């Protein structure tokens, strides 16, 4: 951290939990190169220079930007109150909220999502089928060429002692099946999708859905067959999901990778260490295997490292360490 003794004094004076303080240390570590380049601590920067910093840190979500910028503002306020800096005036006089940070968000980069982000964006989606598709990808349902989604039937969904499961056809060629535990929210969405008989297009046109045993089915008009197809799935992403999430770069891959990071965080203990055991558990959920020896599958730890975005995870979920 730039001027680490001042930053640590600020953290010591705060009443936040140690986990929150570690998050603030990550913020200050991120600003360190900028401070070193300018030769100034944050508390000596004018608003023009701080604006340059706000663009430079490339926050991708409103929540992460609000948290980041508020930490900077609080640090500057503490420094001014303690007599540090060339001026006693705080250059940030506005409230740091979503309106304040909106113009500084980095729109061009790949964007990842937390589970809460998904449900917030679901408010912009009319049809439960499209919501269920996104949440299914987020929870690890995919398969070879979307085989687990395309072949999912009502009878493949089950509940036992308050836990919910989906039996999935992960490979249509080799007829490979796997059992996956899913959330109650996804289970309910999939049941509702199966029971829904109409689909409302983005232009407001209501279409009848084909009858059949599959959860994800086509519209009746102008198509042959019942099961949803890969082109239709891709069309949902292009025509519905991109608009609902206000993200032109969102793909089935970024949704799935967001889920990988979410569950990696969920499976970690309080020590916040991402171990081989946890990675293996996530790999099993998302079918992320790199090799098979004598019938036993092994996860690719290199591939897992390529999938996760450490900056995103630390911004959204807190400090962590890799041990694999």
UniProtKB/TrEMBL annotation:
It comes from the Bacteria. It comes from Lysinibacillus zambalensis. This is MrpR N-terminal core-binding domain-containing protein. Residues 1-79 form the MrpR N-terminal core-binding domain. Keywords: DNA recombination. Signal peptide: none annotated. Pfam families: MrpR_N_CB (PF22822).
């Amino acid at each position: 951290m730039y001027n680490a003794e001042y930053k640590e004094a600020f953290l010591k004076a705060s009443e936040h939990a140690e986990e929150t303080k570690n998050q603030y240390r990550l913020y200050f570590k991120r600003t360190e190169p900028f401070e070193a380049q300018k030769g100034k601590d944050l508390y000596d920067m004018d608003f023009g220079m701080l604006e340059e910093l706000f663009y430079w840190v490339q926050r991708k979500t409103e929540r992460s930007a609000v948290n980041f910028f508020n930490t900077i503002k609080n640090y500057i306020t503490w420094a001014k109150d303690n007599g540090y800096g060339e001026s006693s005036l705080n250059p940030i006089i506005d409230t740091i909220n979503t309106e304040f940070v909106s113009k500084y968000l980095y729109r061009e980069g790949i964007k990842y999502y937390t589970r809460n982000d998904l449900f917030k964006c679901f408010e912009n989606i009319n049809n439960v089928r499209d919501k269920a598709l996104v949440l299914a990808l987020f929870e690890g349902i995919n398969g070879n060429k979307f085989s687990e989604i395309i072949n999912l039937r009502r009878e493949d969904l089950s509940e036992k002692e308050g836990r919910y499961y989906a039996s999935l056809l992960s490979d249509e060629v080799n007829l490979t099946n796997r059992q996956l535990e899913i959330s109650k929210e996804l289970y309910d969405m999939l049941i509702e999708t199966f029971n829904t008989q109409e689909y409302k297009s983005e232009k407001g046109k209501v279409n009848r859905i084909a009858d059949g045993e599959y959860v994800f089915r086509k519209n009746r008009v102008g198509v042959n067959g019942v099961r949803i197809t890969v082109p239709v799935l891709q069309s949902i992403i292009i025509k519905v999901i991109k608009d609902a999430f206000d993200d032109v770069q969102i793909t089935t891959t970024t949704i799935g990778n967001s889920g990988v990071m979410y569950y990696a965080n969920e499976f970690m203990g309080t020590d916040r260490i991402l171990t081989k055991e946890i990675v293996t558990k996530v790999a099993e959920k998302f079918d992320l295997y790199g090799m098979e020896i004598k019938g036993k599958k092994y996860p690719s730890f290199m591939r897992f490292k390529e999938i996760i975005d450490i900056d995103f995870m630390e911004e959204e979920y807190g400090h962590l360490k890799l041990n694999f």
